[in-house]
Each structure stands twice: as C-alpha cells, then as structure tokens.
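Hi everyone, sorry if this is the wrong subforum. Our group has a chain we'd like a structural model of before ordering constructs, and none of us has done structure prediction before. Sequence below.
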Amino acid sequence: MKKIVLALSFLFLITTFISAQVQIGNDSTKIDYSNPKEYTIGGITVSGTQHLDKNVLILLSGLSPGQKVQIPGDKIASGIENLWKQGLFDDVKIQVTRIQGKSVFLNIAIVERPRLSKFTFSGVKRSEADDLRDKLKLVRGKVVTDYLIANIINTVKDHYIDKGFMNVKVSVKEQSDTSLVAGGEESDNSNTNQIDDTKNPNENHKEKTQNKNHVAAGISLGVILYIKVDKGEKIKIGNIIFDGNSSLSARKLRHTMKDTKQKRWYNIFNSSKYLVENLKKDEGNIIDKYHSIGYRDAKIVKDSVYKTSENLVNIKITIKEGSKYYFRNITWVGNSKYTDRTLAAVLGIKKGDVYNQSLLDEKLTMNPNGTDVSSLYMDNGYLFFQVTPVEVMVENDSIDLEMHIYEGKQAIINKVTVTGNTKTNDRVVLREIRTKPGQLFRRSDIMRTQRELAQLGYFDPEKMTVTPIPHQADGTVDINYGVEEKPSDQVSLSGGWGAGMIVGTVGLSFNNFSARNFFNGSAWRPLPSGDGQKLSLSAQANGINYQSYNASFTEPWLGGKKPNSLTVSIYHSIQSNGQPKTISVNGATEANPARADITINGLSVGLGKRLRFPDDYFSLYQEVALQKYILNNYASVFSYSSGISYNFSYKLALSRNSIDRPIFTSSGSQITLSGQWTPPYSLFSPNTDYATETEAQKFHFVEYQKYKFTASWFAPLTNLRAAEGKEAHNLVFNARAGFGFLGMYNNQIGLSPFQRFYLGGSGLTGYNIDGREIIAMRGYDDQSLSPTTGAAMICKYTLELHYPISLNPQATVYLLSFAEAGNSWTTFQQFDPFSVYRSVGVGVRIFLPMFGLLGFDYGWRLDNVPTAPNMQKSQFHFTIGTSMGEL
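Answer:
Right subforum, don't worry. Here is the predicted structure as tokens:
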C-alpha cells in the first residue's frame, strides 16, 4: 500500500511540474487549470534557440498548427517531454502567447545547453593525452550534457584502470569561454587561446584559427572543459593464495595464470598489475588445468581481493576440486568410412586414461598437427564431417562416451580466390596454393598452403586467413585465402673488419621483383614488383685497397608452370696494397712493381627443382660456377704470390625444408646434404710429375671435392594459442648440427687453397676473396678456431631456446639463449667430433623489413685456445642474416 501511495504522489508531482511549464504570455488571457478546454493550435513560434533549427524543434515536440489540444492537457505535457528527451536543453517551456476564439497560439521557449569550445588535460603526459583524445572523440561544438561529462569521466577511468591504476580519480570542471562574447566578438583575454596544454604550438594555432572562424560565423561555442586526472600509483599483486587445492600445488596453479602474476623481481616479462578481467580469464585457465588431470567438476567457489598496502593487494582463490574421473568405454556411432578400430587408433585414448576434456577435443577436432579424427575425414574430402562426444554413463569415477559421427558427403573444391595481395600478382600466389578447383577438399592441403605462402616472405603469417565457404546442397566448397602484404625488400648498410682494414657494405635486395615490367615505366613504384623474382645488388669497398661488386637474379618458377628455379650470379672483386697500378718512369707509363693485388671474377648459374619423392618437402639444387683468380705479387693468403687460377665447379645439393616460417620458426626441420666437385684435372695427366711443379702451376686449374651436411630442427616447448588480437608467445627449442669436409684427388698436388673453412667469432668478415666459408662460434675471436690457412674438416653443434617478444612483421623481435660446440682440423685423420670448444650465451634477434635479421649475442667461452692465450673470456657479437655461416 505504501508503494502505491508513493507512486501516485510521484506521478502527481511530475504532472504538476510539466503543467507548470505551460505559461501564459498575456495576463489578460486566463487559463483555468481546474477546467481544461480544447483549442486548435493556430501557430507555433520558438524562442531562445541559437544553433538549432526552429522547424525541427517544432517537429520534435509533436505539436503542429491545426492540431486540437487540451490546455492544460497530455499533448502539451508530451511536447515538453519530447524536447527534454533530446538532452540539448537546460530549460523547456511551452507558453500560450494569445487565445483567439477557439485558437491558441504557442511559443516554445528553450534555454540551450552550453556547447564545447575547448578542452584540456592536466595530470597526464602529452602521449597519454593523445591516447585519451582518440578515445573520447570530443569535437568543438558538441553539446555539453551530464551524460557527456559522465562519459568523459568513465572513459578516462577505464583507460587507466586497464593499465593498473585502480585508484585513478577524474574530475571535469566547466568554465565559460571568456574569449567569446555575445555578438560574435572575441575578447582580449588571450589566456584561453591555448586549446590544450598537451598539444604542440602548431596544433594550438590550428584550433585558434578554427575558433575565429566559428566566431565570424556568429556561433557562440560555450564552455571550456578542464579534465583533471590523478592516476595515483599502480595497484600490484602482492601474493596469490589458494585454498582447497590438494591435487595441484599453489606454484603450479600460479603458473597457469598467464596475465595475473605476483610482484616478484624475476617476473621481468610479466606485469604484476591487478586487472579484474585478467583475473577472471586466468581463473578459467585454472579450471582448464584441473580438467586436464581428470577433475571435471572442479570449480572456483569464491575469490577475494584485499589491500595489504596503498598499492598492493592480495588475491585469495578458494577451489573445490571434486573427484578425479577416468575414461572407460568409448564407442562409435554413424561411421561407415572408417572402422571403429581405425578411429580408436587415431583418437589414442584408452580405457583407464585420466579424463581430459581438452585432450579429447584436440584428438577429435583441434590438433594443430592435423593428427585428429576430424583431419582424417577432412583429408579425404569430408568437409561436412561432424563428431559429437556424448557421455552415456557416469559411474563412480568412470565415464563412458559415445561418439556420434555425421560423415556427410565428400566436398569438391569449386572456386579458389585470394584477397589482400595489393602488390603481389594473383598468379604468384595461386601457383603456391595446393587446393585446386575440381579436387577433393583436404584440410592438409590448406595447412600446407598456409606454410608455402608464409615461406614466400611477402605476407604477414600472423594475419593469414582461410575461409571455406561450403555449399552443402551440391557438395562443393569455395575457398578464400586472405593475406596482408608486408615489406619484403631490404637495404643492407654495414661495416666489418677483415684483413687489417674496415670494409663498408651496401646492398639492395628486391625480393618481389618483376623483370617483365622492367621497361614499363608505369610499373616502377619505385621498382617493378609483384612477380616473385629476386634481384640482389651489393658493393663492398675500402677505398682503393678493396672493392667488390655482386649481382644476382632468381626466377623461382622458370617457365611459369613448374616450381623450377633459375639463379644467375656475377661478381667482381679486387684487393690490393693500395699502390697504384702504374707509375711514370722518365715520362713513360710502366707497371708498378710495388703493387700487390688479387682480382677475382666469377659467374654461377643454378637450377632448383622441387621433388615429390620421398615427399614434396624435398628439393634438388644444381649449380655450375666459374671463378678466375689473378694474383700479382700477392703472398699474404696463398702459398704462391703470382699467377692465374681457374676454379670451375659443379655443385649438387639435396635438401628437405619443412619449417613453418623463415623469420621466427616454431616448428619443422631443415636438412641439407651437398657436394661440390671440380674436374679431376690431375687424373687426365697421369704422367705429370707434380712434385717438380710450382704452386702456381699446381693450382692453375684448381681441383677439389667438398661435402657438407647441415641439419636444423625446431619444436615448440609450449602450446599457447593466439587469442583474438594477440600473438601466441611460445618458447621454441632449436637444435642444429653441421659437418664439412674439403678433400683432394691427388696427394702430390695437395689440398686446394680455396674453399676452406674458418671457425670462430660472429661469422662476419669485411671481405671474401677465395670462396672461404666463415662459420660463427660465439664466445671466441673471429676465425680463432682454425689454422690461419683454413681448415679441411669442421663440425659444429648448437642448441638454442627462442622466445618471441614481438611477432609483428614490421619489427619481429625474439630473445635466445644458446650453447655451442665446434672445432676444425687441417686433415681428415685429425677429425674428432667429440674434441670441441664450447660456449654459452644469450642474444636477441631483430628483424626489420628494410634491413633483414640483425643479431646481438653475448657469449662466454668455456675452453682455452692454445693458439690464443690472451683471448678474452666473454665478448659481444653482431650478426646479419638468418644463418651464421652455413653450419
């Protein structure tokens, strides 16, 4: 009864208030409020408006000339209410200006709310103010309402609460804009000309100019909003306490919480700020962990957060674990394509195994490696396949499952499209796609296509999408691949130390070049691109002492129909002691006897072919190369100082590459076995006594045989999946091993002075004059683990752990720790794969599209080098490129 009385009283007050807004414009015209009368509206006027259209206001009121109304009455009250709803006014009245017979003339008198002139922040940095402006989206002339003020306060608070400032305080102060006065004139008060104290002078000048334009138009902008922010200190998590857990320790439970961490000195990569949404998400991770060990009834009974100091809170989570369950009988219903035994083998869950819902889901449909029941069907065209596990019995601690299968019919691929490739031509993308129209739909083909597109290096692998569009009526499916271009061209600017000098390098690598558009001027943006070809140009120089020029071109699809690659390289280098080639003697030009130099000219042509056997991850590469060495009094490297040597060789390399992506690789392997041979010239001249020949004669035609084996294997140690809008930061293990051997055909000639191995340091050098292979060994000086003339045998082993900081293709960054071991030997007889030098260390890799992969490592050597007793114990190394040498 009390509620009814209160409601009636409230209704009476509201009616009285609205009725009181109906005023009389002429005292001689009397309205009897106790005796409503019906009138016809003869006309409506509007007063008090500055910015709003009067006709629109009349329309919004719901009143119109010719309309019959009672005064006082509901229609007048509704008109006032309709205008109040707009939130644009401080006061609304409907006045009776005059009554003429049965006609009444009305005036809508309004007082507009003030409008925003300027706003400024205090208590925040300029960068923070920029972020807040983007979120608030305040514009000049916006009506300042209570809702707007509340929205400003809530938005700013939410912004800082999301950053861990739980005690943030926000206030908004309104002040009339005294720089604008009635009549559209600007006052002399210049203090308010500063639009926002967090903006630069150019922005403020722009806003002041806009302000003058508004004044010239006769618009009064109203008020300035002063938004004051007191962030306070971030709220950190002191301790996370668990109650009711017996099967999992508190340490293991805290480990499952990815975003909610205790404040500890060792949590350098994780924030310990307290956020409610992070806690709720991590509580879900806790329950998932219990489900994975059989506690399917586990639940969080309650959680409590309480302050221990001004900036620290403790979190207490109470858990009810329930009973542990096990799988018992698993039966299959609806399967005709595969037998129960086959499906059970793929499922891999046996009677008595701990009940694990996430494992069950993974084995049925969600295994990223494609070894699940769903993949078994989808790799055979059954796109419409569905499997639903049903618990048919729960008895004590055991659960019986029945797998309900809907196989559907096999789907045929209808159309395949690509979107998002704004630079790369469609044909370049489509030729890498394994799903072809007319083929059976296969999930493995889609996964392989994603891998091949990532290997191109033109697209962001984190943003690739695959959208199957099934048409169940006719059993077909359309597939769309969505890609996003990323910069792939690179500029290399570097310096190195070698041969007692500093050498500068500049290189350009265009990884998506288009040779066929070279003479098409409109295709130069800035170079013709989009056909997937690679053009590389580089130059090294140290003034007149050393110069080297290299150019190479690769066509990955020679002929355009098969993935057979063609690579052509040409290079020229010259190194000297800095003396001029010629001198003037008695007015005549003669060769300079003091000059010492070596000139190298080279050309190579290579053909690559993708193989289908043993599987289609294999490829075969063949290369023919010719080098000409011209030595003139150059005795610092070889056993002879003058002469001409020719190095004509054939190289054959068999490799298998199944890595998922080239920059931050998380899975797969890369194995290469190669051999390189020159013709056995000495065997063609069996009667030649090489013991009597000079070194220059022996190596006029260089002969050798060279073999290498390298293997690299990647495996993720964690299995985090990317959340929406976030990257999955998984720890990755990488193991590498490499062996190299340089042999000869004739003992009388000896080992070739070219193509030798040099181990130690960063793997960088400022020069390359004789085809030598410089292999990194971090923690040791450059080339300190090989003879000065190079080694014929080498081995190296590497273990690394990789952790990504950013997988953004514009700036990929990951940390690593490493352990390495390696050594080199002069002869095959000395080779001992277990007699190695060791080192450990840490590093970082940074990939920038314009410069490639840059590396910084700090290595500690664990062994002493007899030939370098003064070598420092640890040192920094700088590297460029994905491989540090070829081992």
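For your construct planning: The chain is about 20% helix and 40% strand. The radius of gyration is 40 Å.
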